[in-house]
Automatic annotation (TrEMBL):
Protein's organism: Williamsia serinedens
InterPro entries in UniProt: MHB, MHB_sf
Location of the Haemophore haem-binding domain: 41-116
Protein name: Hemophore-related protein, Rv0203/Rv1174c family
Length: 120
């Protein structure tokens, strides 16, 4: 006579061991997640890191949307007093592109908000 319950016990033991391993892995990941949420250090190195982190995403958005890249280049040629109106007009007709660009610039915005808050 063979013990038919043996495979079930073995499966439960493996399942329990896997659950413990996953639990330990998740617990080990919690300090890493909270460490990444640490306050931004306001230094030239932190600014450079934010720009370096955002650069590939921004380049990707501009590569996917050449009309956005052309408009941003065109804006740089305009006098300062004309830029705002032109940008606003372009932004209303190209909302999705600007949304993508804003998301790509998140690391830079986070650094600026943390290190250079607006004075009121």
């Amino acid at each position: 006579m063979t013990d038919t319950r043996h495979p079930a016990r073995w499966t439960r033991r493996i399942g329990a061991a896997a659950a413990v391993t996953v639990g330990i892995g998740l617990a080990a990941g919690v300090p890493a997640a909270t460490a990444s949420a640490a306050p931004i250090q306001c230094s030239p190195q932190a600014r450079a890191a934010a720009v370096a982190q955002a650069a590939p995403a921004i380049a990707g958005v501009l590569a996917r949307h050449p009309d956005l890249a052309a408009e941003l280049a065109h804006l740089r040629t305009l006098p300062k007093n004309q830029r705002r109106a032109e940008l606003k007009e372009f932004r209303t007709t190209h909302r999705e592109e600007f949304k993508e660009l804003r998301q790509a610039r998140t690391p830079i915005r986070d650094y600026r908000q943390a290190c250079h808050p607006k004075r009121r």
